[in-house]
Amino acid sequence: MHRYLLYVFLWVTAACGGSQKSEAPADAPKADEKAGPIKIGFINSITGPEAPIGENLTNGALLAVEDLKAAGVTVELVKQDDLGKPQVAMSAMEQLVTGDQVTAILGPYTSANSNAVAKLAQQYKVPQLIPVASKDEITRQGHTYVFRLNAVSTQYARSLIDAALSFGAPKSIAFIYESADFGTSVSTAGKLYAKEKGLAVVADETYQKGAPDYRSTLSKIKAANPDLVFMVSYVADAILIMRQSREVGLSPQAFLGGGAGYETAQFESEKDISTNVFSVTQWTPGMDWPGAAEFAQRYQAKFGKKPTYHAACTYASLMLLGETANKVHGDREKLRDALASQSWKGIVGDVKFENYDGFTQQNRHEMAVIQYQNGVGTVVYPAERAKAKAVYPFPGWK
Amino acid sequence: MQMFFQAAVSGILMGGVYALIGIGLTLIFGVMQVINFAHGDLVMVGMYAAWLLFSHFHVDPFVSILLTGPLLFLLGALLQRGFIQRVLGEAQENQILLTIGLGLLLSNTAMLIFTSDYQLLTTSYSSQAFSVAGVSMSVPLFFAFIVTMLVAFALYVFLMKTDTGAAIRATAQDREAAQLMGINVSRMSVLAFGLGAALAGIAGALIAPTYYIFPQVGHAFTLKSFVIVVLGGMGSVVGASIGGVLIGVVESLAALYLASGLKEAVVFALFLLLLLFRPSGLLGRART
Questions:
Q1: Which residue range(s) make up the domain with B116?
Q2: What's the pLDDT tens digit per position in B129-146?
Q3: Chain A residues whose beta carbon lies within 8 Å of the beta carbon of residue B252
Q4: Hey, what domains does chain A have and what are their CATH numbers?
Q5: Contact at 8 Å (CB) between A128 and A145?
Q6: Which residues 216-255 of B have a C-beta within 8 angstroms of A?
Q7: Residue A260's CB: how many other CB atoms inside 10 A?
Q8: Identity of the residue in A14, A51, A223 whose CB atom sits nearest the CB atom of B3
Q9: Contact assignment for A215 to B216 by CB distance below 8 Å
Q10: pTM greater than 0.90
């Protein structure tokens, strides 16, 4: 009997620790004038459960490599797959820094992986630019080689709760979130901010992503009768949670979807369950940033789908990283200094890495709150950028 | 109290599907003493089959099990003939490596064909529910449970009342003695593996409308079905049915009374306790 158990454990460890590396430089390195192309390591979730979102990062990076080339900057992107697992991301990092000798690191996608890699970036003194991972802690540890373009998770929660408070007068809030880094950090920030704003936290539920059944958790939340339900999920569990919310008849004043799964095209297309749900996003062409609409068109033409914020933020990150690295001829130290002191304009608005509120080298990025209306995510907050009036309170399930 | 019933009902409905997966695994183990680590991946194949039939030919997943079942039976029979048959009686390590390898082959082939994107099978009733005495039940999951019961019952009748069923049971009890009695044990093995695969495929098709589909989805089910089988007693079909429902209910109640993040931990804690006090499982025979 115990032998079988042993095999199960072996199997689980093998499944968890297995690493597949896919190395495919986007462009064959050309014998350029003096130094050769700028080498940038790109750690991303190319396979594994995060792969559907990881693909957006890859696409954004591909467009950036093209545009950099058109601007006379040849970048060799050395891709590494982290399978969505921190330990794999760390070994990918070691390989990129010591083996491939890259100038800088872009990525990884998830918060857990970015945080693991950030420690190594600091240790090896290699500039790392994080395009989308949002856990606060990553840029709160005083790492001098770690930069982040996107807004931190605190901002997800703040923007959503601010928006809800501007639409109505909710009194209580319930949280349901996936139990990994992204979910817990967004929700922890949300709970603190909710209390600050005088909202009572009436339910606080974590779940393991991938579970097929959230019904008992959702009925527990329903029994607590909250005015707001704040959810943090990845792509597939977001749809499942909304479906099952409808099943158990959970119907608060507003569903607040904390980014990620709640702002995917797939979620948007499930009109039955997405209509009137709020979400917050790092990027949407609806925010009218310079070049954003054009980027959206080109992306659509090239990849046949709408760009997500992951694609846009990765594009913007690689553009500024490539240009800046080229100016300093691929020198890691000079690149770090340049990233810390300069500023850029692009499709995600103005970018400047600043130290504030305990964050270091963190871009103060502006977030958009959207609501799904007639199957389209429409900007409804901040008020000055709103494209439509928010539907509040939630009118109930059909 | 209503919340308790709600959680219990959700758990039982979900557990029914777990049970179906577990029955397939235990059947294979019972007859061949091979643990099929590709079992979850067969569930995945069933899910993709249902999804393909639905999205391209508009066949309802509950109807398409009439196709996915036989299809998976064939796939299982082929796998048994082509691969598993060759390692019967070999060292367990080899058998396990082989089935893990087959599983990886299946999931990576799926990734090659379908990419790693999440696919959703959204039927008109995917998020519908009805209410009985204040307890809401998911329509697709409710039907899935009914079908599960029917399939399990049919299997029970097949195993208990037919000659072939008796032959399969005889092979499971003692392979050599069965062979001496004139039973074609290698044919019974093909049959058992095919049936096990068909059950996994049917389970996959049944949960497809309420879950999401991606190439690695099977891993979670492999592990869960293994727990179910050991819990129920390895090789015991009735044990696997009880084990499946039990795990569904425990998960659901743990999510309600403890924390949803802890439900897996509770399942495994119970599992370990059971192994300590009843190492052969709920209905298992003691093994050496």
A1: 21-217
A2: 888 887 888 888 999 999
A3: 213, 215-216
A4: 2-151+289-363 (3.40.50.2300), 154-281+367-385 (3.40.50.2300)
A5: yes
A6: 216, 219-220, 223, 226, 230, 234, 248, 251-253, 255
A7: 30
A8: A223
A9: no
A10: no
